[in-house]
Amino acid sequence: LMSKPLLTIEDVVEPAKRDRTHIESTLKLKEDKPADDYSGTTLQRLRKIYHSSIKPLEQSYRYNELRQHEITDGEITSKPMVLFLGPWSVGKSTMINYLLGLDDTPYQLYTGAEPTTSEFTVIMHGPKLKTIEGIVMAADSARSFSPLEKFGQNFLEKLIGIEVPHKLLERVTFVDTPGIIENRKQQERGYPFNDVCQWFIDRADLIFVVFDPTKLDVGLELEMLFRQLKGRESQIRIILNKADSLATQELMRVYGALFWSLAPLINVTEPPRVYVSSFWPLEYQPDTHQDLFLKEEISLLEDLNQVIENRLENKIAFIRQHAIRVRIHALLVDRYLQTYKDKMTFFSDGELVFKDIVEDPDKFYIFKSILAKTNVSKFDLPNREAYKDFFGINPITSFKLLSSQCSYIGGCFLEKIEKAITNELPDLLGNIGLGKKPSILSCDTTGCGETPKNRYRKP
User: Fold this and answer.
1) Which domain CATH number covers 231?
2) Residue 265 lies in a domain
3) With 0-12 CB in 10 A as exposed, 13-18 as middle and 19+ as buried, what is 74?
4) Which 8-state DSSP code applies to residue 459?
């Protein structure tokens, strides 16, 4: 009997790799851009406006304790952040490897069919390949991740940074997240997973929610995630990955099933953009819609490039939106305090008087009076219930009225933030459109905050 010849290493055919020229051209990776001192000047001016016109009111009325969103200097000057969310093993890490061309290099993220990413992984630019522990990232305020310390040491052990010398990462930062596993209880993760996700969602410029044809079920954890995405619909992009693993008819059914699953979770008139393709380095499967998948991929890359190009506009708009929220919060606290002072008499029990106000603010027209006097949109008003918790921690008597928050030299806090919202920030935005360089204002007189320090770096 003749034995069958054994396969040798030479007989094993390497899978064909996909051409990457469309990635390099769409993301402009070959272009040598000159040093951009214009964006640095704009961000310095933005930082000055924040510290001189917004932060004083924010600190005086403890806005951070209402929204848990403290803006650091690192966040103002940070690159755009792209966040990857979705069930486990749908190809999030593989997609990052593909976009950056990290496959078969020492830099590639670990991938597999089982849940592999148990950490929040921040992929950023650096001069050489380097891994940074979460505790070091949180200590370095220049990196914009210092507020993550509040989630505890268990979380910081699940936070990791990877510096990679890649052209794209000079302009953007990627964040890979642990996959959603529906049968796992929140407490088993050992840290507040939803709160951490919310922190990254609030700061992301683009959010890719990735699915694959085998994981379209919506469980409690995914439902909670979409609740957290409420209000960020313009940043969300849905990705149906591994699309070339299906025949045409199956793909149509899966596409419909995905919309059916997500429809109750996204309450907007215009559905989010859905990209259907296969984001990995190997060639598309034969007899599939390869042209369609390539066009979808290029559209996604154009979307990503648009976010990078609009970095300054998005940053100014973000700070202005933050300023509007701070102003509304200050006006509400001021109104609560004024109502409290009006209702107090010599014989009144202050605690009971304020409890009556905070339990039913509508009886005292607190929210309606803000709408009537200050031209605030009712859609921007915070939840009334949030102020029960806020005043439970912060006694009403610890605040001052807005009318007393003025000084001869510094002016009034309210006037300064209103000037920033109506004049300074729109002017800064207009200068970008006209290509004008904003004037640099000295930080010596206005105070732009401390220079970011790394507590772990030796002098």
Assistant:
1) 3.40.50.300
2) yes
3) middle
4) -
> What 3-state class would DSSP assign to 274?
strand
Cα(179)–Cα(85) distance, integer angstroms: 7
Cα dihedral: 207, 208, 211, 216 (round 10): 20
Structure tokens at 99: 């976009």
The alpha-helical segments, DSSP class H, found in 92-190 are 92-100, 134-139, 153-156
- As a whole number, the mean pLDDT across the chain is 83
Does one domain contain both 333 and 281? Answer: no
> What mean pLDDT is predicted for residues 401-409?
90
271 & 411 share domain: no
Q: How many domains, in total, are found in the chain? A: 2
Which residues have a Cβ under 8 Å from the Cβ of 388 and sit 6 or more positions away? 358, 359
**Which band of pLDDT confidence, cut at 50, 70 and 90, is reported for residue 433?**
low
Average pLDDT rounded to a whole number, residues 410-419: 92
**What does the buried/exposed string (b/e) look like for 367-398 if buried means 16 or more CB atoms within 10 Å of the residue's CB?**
bebbeeeeebeeeeeeeeeebeebbeebebee
- Can you list the pairs that 288-294 forms with residues at least 24 positions away whose Cβ atoms lie under 8 Å? 288/243, 288/244, 288/246, 288/247, 288/248, 289/244, 289/248, 289/251, 290/244, 293/243, 293/244, 294/22
Residue 168 lies in a domain: yes
Closest CA to 126 of 74, 76, 79, 73: 79
- Residue of 51, 46, 67 whose CA lies nearest to 330: 67
Q: Where are the strands (E) in 180-327, listed by range? A: 206-211, 236-240, 273-276
**Whether residue 240 is found in the same domain as residue 331:** no
Domain of 111 in residue numbering reads as 79-288
Whether residue 279 sits in one domain with residue 412: no
pLDDT tens readout for residues 131-173: 999 999 998 867 788 889 889 999 999 999 999 999 999 999 9
Over the stretch 436-459, which tens digit does the pLDDT of each residue have?
A: 555 444 343 334 444 444 433 444
Same domain flag for 218 and 362? no
Predicted confidence (pLDDT) at residue 308 exceeds the cutoff of 70: yes
Encode pLDDT of 343-389 as tens digits.
Answer: 988 888 888 999 999 999 999 899 988 887 676 888 888 888 889 99
Residue 392 and residue 276 in one domain: no
**Domain shared by 266 and 340, yes or no:** no
Question: How many CB atoms sit inside 10 A of residue 64's CB?
Answer: 14
